[in-house]
Write a structure and sequence with these properties.
This protein has 216 residues and is mainly α. It has nine helices and two strands.
């Protein structure tokens, strides 16, 4: 729990970065158990709850990532709704594989793929953000977008994103919005990176194990 002091009053609150890191560390334990031979599968509702914390960060990034926020939030919402019917991530993949609808727009497996890209985009953004204090948020976000999302986006979307990068907050503005200092943000961003990467790999393996190539 992080404590922040306002005026003469001290208050405790969980910041968005704290919530993200903690949620994905819980998912990490599931992916680790699976790698060790456990038959435990990742519950869809638990996954969606963790992903919902990332939505807050997209909101803090402004217009440049509005495309990602709108797509990401809607996909998480659809998956959360589906969790009333399907218990695990594996269940929705099995459904779409059986119906040959994995890549069909609106399918749960396609939604999962897009949410996974959103998680990876934030992971790459954090890595770039932490690479040097001289790196502006615009530079960090541009590099992260080019690595993770640009290969799958049309020229129109890429152009709109490039234009929106100029509306990104500064490093200090982002930290203020997240209620963090440089030091506290670095620690929590690294926690998210360490936890999210194995979870992303876990999801990728679910597709690859079903002979689904990840080129979309």
């Amino acid at each position: 729990m992080d404590t922040y002091r306002h005026g003469n009053n001290a208050c405790s609150m969980t910041t968005p970065l704290s919530a993200m890191a903690e949620a994905f560390e819980e998912l990490l334990e599931i992916s680790k158990a699976n790698q060790k031979g456990s038959e435990e599968e990742m519950r869809l509702d638990t996954f969606c709850d963790a992903c919902s914390f990332v939505s807050v960060l997209f909101g803090c990034l402004g217009l440049a990532f509005k495309f990602a926020e709108l797509e990401y939030v809607s996909k998480v919402r659809d998956l959360k709704e589906a969790s009333r019917t399907y218990d695990t991530i594996e269940d929705i993949l099995e459904l779409d594989v059986a119906n040959d609808t994995v890549k069909t727009p609106g399918s749960l497996s396609r939604n999962l793929r897009r949410v996974r890209q959103g998680l990876d985009l934030i992971r790459a953004l954090f890595e770039q953000f932490l690479s040097t204090e001289e790196y502006s948020l615009k530079e960090a976000a541009s590099t992260a977008y080019a690595q993770v999302c640009a290969p799958y986006h049309s020229w129109t979307i890429r152009t709109a994103v490039a234009a929106g990068m100029y509306a990104l907050p500064t490093r200090d503005q982002l930290l203020l919005r997240l209620n963090e200092t440089d030091q506290s943000a670095e620690k929590k961003m690294r926690r998210y990176i360490s936890a999210a990467l194995p979870v992303i790999e876990y999801i990728d393996k679910l597709y690859l194990s079903r002979n689904i190539i990840l080129d979309w």
